[in-house]
Amino acid sequence: MRYIRYAFLACLAIVLVSVALANRGFVTLQLLPGDLSVLLGMQKTMQLPLFIVIFGGIVAGLLIGFFWEWLREHKHRAEAARRQAEVKRLERELRRVKGQRDAGKDEVLALLDQAS
């Protein structure tokens, strides 16, 4: 299984390097639309290789997707934490009840009851 993972990563690296080599040309990236940049007094443009723009878009999409999924799963994490707290509370209550039940018994018999 490890070799399959390494082979997949090697193929992915070859594809990414070939995309980067094929798209080395510089492009002008404007950070704001023309009218808005004039209104704000910011004429921000950048000259970047096209592969950086492509890979940056992929990374930004992944980060936005991870964050969105983390927000979406909040209710599931909260429910799991609530259930875990309930289980701990019930385990404490069970130990307390068993301790009250075994209060008058012989210690050896109480230990045998706890083991089963």
TrEMBL record:
GO cellular component, as recorded: plasma membrane
Regions crossing the membrane: 46-68
Location of the Lipopolysaccharide assembly protein A domain: 44-94
InterPro entries recorded: LapA_dom
Residue ranges that the Swiss-Prot or TrEMBL entry lists as coiled coil: 71-107
Keyword field: Cell membrane, Coiled coil, Membrane, Transmembrane, Transmembrane helix
Keyword Zinc-finger appears in the UniProt entry: no
Protein's name in the database: Lipopolysaccharide assembly protein A domain-containing protein
